Amino acid sequence: MAKLRLVKPAALDEPLRSVVGDRTAKVLADGLGLHTTGDLLHHYPRRYATRGELTDLAGLSDGEDVTVLAEVLTARRRRMRQRKGDILEVVVTDGRGRLTLTFFGRGVHEPDKELKPGFRGMFAGRISTYGGRRQLTHPEYHVLPGGADAGGTGGAGTRVLAAAREFADELIPVYPATKGMTSWRIARCVSMILDTVDIGADSMPEPIRRRHDLIGLREAYEGIHRPADLAVARRARERLRWDEAFVVQAALARRRRAAATLPARPRARVEGGLLDAFDARLPFRLTAGQLAVGAEIAADLAAEHPMHRLLQGDVGAGKTVVALRAMLQVVDAGGQAALLAPTEVLAQQHHRSIMTLLGPLAQAGQLGGADEATRAVLLTGSQGAKARRAALLDAASGAAGIVVGTHALLQEHVQFADLGLVVVDEQHRFGVEQRDALREKVAGGRPHVLVMTATPIPRTVAMTVFGDLDTSTLTQLPDGRAAISTHVVPPERPHYLRRAWERIREEVAAGRQVYVVCPRIGDQEGADEDIDEDLIDGDVDEGAGAAGQDDFAQDDPAQDDFAQDDFAQDDFAQDGGEQRTWSVADVLPRLEEDWLPGLRIGVLHGRLPADEKDATMRRFAAGEFDVLLATTVIEVGVDVPNATVMMIMDADRFGVSQLHQLRGRVGRGALPGLCLFVTRSPGGTKARERLDAVAATTDGFELARLDLEQRREGDVLGAAQSGRRSSLKLLTLLKDEELIRTARDEANALIDGDPDLTRHPVLAAELAALVDDDRAEYLEKG
């Protein structure tokens, strides 16, 4: 550890190397992403240990990187058998379990001197098992001051002196650490900074601190990193959670206020136009929820400022019809609407659905077209030159009121005559910059924007809770939609899989159709273009849905007869015996030869040419295939009411959102749906718990909360949507919703009274530092 270098107080933006030295700063930067003194101060302890409380060693798992607090029980040095040198085996204990620390070679001498029976220390390393014993090999360690007097089985635990008790109860912060930088080294770095840093003025206005009984910022940093007791640490965390909520809310409040001043052309509803004609020809009644949400959107479209609304609805809730009605309102008002879909399969499906729903209303200039008709055109990257030129011309001339497409719509040469509304389906598939590219195609204002999602991902949930988006929610399913039951097909119940194939054959015999989904196309996973970003390796669940269903809940004494063939794990093993992920290339011959012989099987994945993908979907929808073997290209938007079974191979390889979206491809008509999660992961893993949770509910919003719990909120002020890069260190949306609402009210009141923050310069500077150039651009675009 480098010695303290500064002679003047460090600022929060001071590079760490100025305080802790170049080598330590490099490890902190490379391993933990910490670059300044402020970054390190915001690297908070994940928990606190005390010298009087040892780590529960029974809860440690192989492969886990741990920092444990334990007492040395024995230390034994011996010669190595296979080579020269000594080996030191130190056994530490928590009073119940034991853990072996192994040192050999040159690393023996110092531990031999310092790790004596009765001493307590912190030990960091990776858990492994050797000879039936759990161990840490060459762990980093830190002996607690006081030697054997630190307490515990060495005898000091019987002392009742007040000083000994105080020493034993002292809190030890345990930090998220990295290779080459242990928790106690991080604690020393933090202490160096706390001793020298100039925190500056508090950005939280003093009246707000008084109203909510919050301590000052300097006191909060001291309290979270060097607390005298847990009560001090709790007060510090409460203040710092408030900081995270309030600063973000102030940024969003300014953003909302600025957005309210942006111009947009009003697109009020026109009586007797396309929308009225469309409503009159609908073959079903709109639900009360669809009508209510439609009225909210219609009012937004008629305003002089751009709509920015999130339309949430569970799978099958009728979001597409709501969006189409909004598009028709804009077309009636003389504008155009663009529908942006993440895949060509979904874009084609949307275009077909719109053409079917509109009928003659989408056939302007054609024989049989209605008098008030418009055109709905499709624009994708793989279209033929002639079709593409026609679509581009219709968009640029205004002949097409509705343009459906993929990323191809974002290209510079795609122009619109008067783009009034952008509808983004499954908005989490598009980055902020991509969505903004469509907005730039509007001259003299902003288009209205409607984003849709069936299963809100963490960022969407975050922004919804933070109140940044106007949100409409569809909770009511249309009449006639059937229920979907979900079951897990686990490796320990191989007879479940036999029954699953039997059930599929029964459904096909009854005239139904089936999806079988694999996470990969072929052997080269890195080349698979349709492996979704959400793909998560290694999580599974056991059958929450399976219990209570006669087809899958019975114990089968003959399960051994089935185990060796249907899972055939040897067929899917790589060199070294590692189990391979099921792929379309692997599964197709098994379906044809072993599992579903004689059935008509179609294949669909992202590497097929666009026209072949479209033709395959058309043939499946027409009933020409009994089984569609596919990847996640059928995740959203695909609508085949006759499909009743969805079997997902290696379901543990998919995220919560993907599983729910895939499940939503069945049960889309009056026929009940069945979804089967096939997994080879053993019970008791997080993956199985996740599959259990998805199998237990079809409520997309409940699943969104589960997704949020697992992936966190994402960087709510940046373009990143992965929770692994969250800028929220202490604030959790599921636990702190009330605090967030209160902070939002305070921020709104402050910004309303001081929009430019002229009376709050410290907060203004904080926002300027938080919302840097890139993030400011993001906020402006978002």
How would you describe this structure to a colleague?
The protein is α/β, with parallel strands linked by helices and 782 residues long. It contains 26 helices and 21 strands. The strands form four sheets. The chain has a seven-stranded parallel sheet, with helices on both faces. It has a six-stranded parallel sheet with strand order 16-21-20-17-19-18, with helices on both faces. It has a five-stranded mixed beta barrel with strand order 2-3-4-6-5. Helix 14 (385-397) links the parallel strand 11 (375-379) and strand 12. Helix 9 crosses helix 24 (737-753) and helix 16 packs across helix 23 (700-711). Residues 1-7, 150-165, 525-578, 719-725 and 773-782 have low confidence and may be disordered.
Features:
782 residues, alpha/beta, seven-stranded parallel beta sheet, six-stranded parallel beta sheet, 26 helices, 21 strands, 37% helix, disordered C terminus
Task: Please provide a brief summary of the model.
37% of the residues lie in helices and 16% in strands.
SSE inventory with pairings:
Layout: H1 17-20, H2 22-32, H3 37-41, E1 47-50, E2 65-79, E3 86-93, E4 98-104, H4 109-114, E5 120-130, E6 133-137, E7 140-143, H5 162-169, E8 171-174, H6 183-196, H7 206-211, H8 217-225, H9 230-259, H10 274-281, H11 288-301, E9 308-313, H12 319-332, E10 336-340, H13 344-358, E11 375-379, H14 385-397, E12 400-405, E13 419-425, H15 432-439, E14 448-453, H16 458-465, E15 470-474, E16 484-489, H17 494-509, E17 513-517, H18 559-566, H19 584-595, E18 601-604, H20 610-621, E19 627-630, E20 643-648, H21 656-663, E21 673-678, H22 686-696, H23 700-711, H24 737-753, H25 761-770, H26 773-781
Parallel strand pairs: 4-6, 9-14, 9-15, 10-12, 10-13, 11-12, 13-14, 16-21, 17-19, 17-20, 18-19, 20-21
Antiparallel strand pairs: 1-8, 2-3, 2-5, 3-4, 5-6, 5-7
Helix pairs in contact: 8-9, 9-24, 10-12, 11-12, 16-23, 17-18
